[in-house]
Specification:
Blueprint: H1 7-27, H2 35-49, H3 56-68, H4 76-101
Helix pairs in contact: 1-2, 1-4, 2-3, 3-4
Length: 103
């Protein structure tokens, strides 16, 4: 397990750093932030552009929870449950992308 500094790996690491920032934003309860959506937009572009597929359930499930989190009419408990699932999706994306980088 080592790091090969190719342009694809470095780009994917930058996208993973954006995912970490998105997790921090969600943990601070800033649900109106667009950073998680920006991460998923970049993740979709990278998985389609490079030969590094991510399981669609992880990718689009996490995206759905981040989009669902944008609704303001949810209660506090439901909103925190959706935020937990959005964070879980982001962590799953980080693990998947880092396994590709460090392979």
């Amino acid at each position: 397990m080592y790091f090969n500094p190719s342009p694809t790996n470095v780009t994917e690491l930058l996208v993973v750093c954006l995912a970490v920032v998105a997790i921090v934003m969600l943990l601070r309860k800033r649900y109106e932030s667009n950073i998680p959506l920006l991460f998923y937009a970049l993740a979709v572009m990278i998985t389609n552009g490079a030969d590094r597929p991510v399981h669609p359930a992880i990718l689009y499930g996490g995206l759905a929870f981040c989009l669902l989190l944008r609704f303001e009419f949810m209660g506090k408990k439901i909103s925190s449950a959706v935020a937990f699932l959005a964070n879980a999706g982001l962590v799953a994306m980080i693990v998947t992308m880092m396994s590709d980088v460090l392979a």
